[in-house]
Structure formats: C-alpha cells, structure tokens
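lol ok so funny story. i was supposed to be doing the assay writeup but got distracted and ended up predicting the structure for this chain instead. priorities right. anyway since i did it might as well share w the group, maybe its usefull for someone
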Amino acid sequence: AGANKWLVHHQGGGWCQSLNCTEEPCPGDSCYVRSGGALGSTKHDRSMMVLKGSYFDLDPVKNPTFYDWNMVFLRYCDGGSFSGARANPVQVGDRLLHFRGFALLNAMIDDVLQNRGMGEASDVVISGCSAGGLAAYLHVDHWADR
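and the output, tada:
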C-alpha cells in the first residue's frame, strides 16, 4: 500500500554560527568543531542507517500511518538547513569549510527522484526537527517544484 508513498525527514542539529573558534574548547555552534563530527560530516557514517521509533517505526501498530512508506533520512551535515550556496570553501584554521547545503539538497533530491523511485510517488511528506524542521519549511516548495 505504501510503495508510492514517501516520508522525507531532515535531521535536526542546530546551525553552526561561529567561524572564529578553531581550538577546544569552542562553543557548540562552532562551524570548525562541527565540521569534524557527526553534525558536519558524514565521513564516519555507516552506508545504511537503522532508524527506530516514532514515524520511522516499521510496526503498523505503533506507526499506522508511515510503517510501510519509503523513508528518506537527510543527514544534517551543512550547518545551515541546506541553505548555503557558496561556490568556494572558507579557510578556518587548518580546514576548508564548505557552505553548499543547497547543492547537497539538490543532489539528494536528484538521487531519490532518478534512482530510488520517488519520481512515481503518489504521496510525499516532508518533515524535520530543529534545524531540520526549518530546512523542511524553507525548502518544501522546492521539493514540490522538483
């Protein structure tokens, strides 16, 4: 029943807001610090994530709406709700930071439309939490236009 239905969730993580701090301890919103961890890079991610609970639950009793839908989890990794469009990286300390979130978003949209079957979707729900909620809000019309 859910073969042509898609849930797209933008992971939350807050925005990175500081380029000035390059040595620990830095505030949690340091773009430099985040670039080396799970909120700024997918370098250490597994090839497939197993999501549990809430609307990712595959149990129809616990999740009667989405249990059999296709699910896309967009990893938070750009620091700005997928809104960055800077062509060139920024040198911060010993790292080059890339603020190309919108290009990342478009690459992910291209992938699910062209390679995963979303092009045949009958229903698509765009969601997110925290900075991912803002990303969903900022880009829902872009998703619809694609």
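The beta strands are 5-10, 70-74, 90-92, 95-97, 123-128. The longest helix spans residues 131-145.
back to the writeup now i swear
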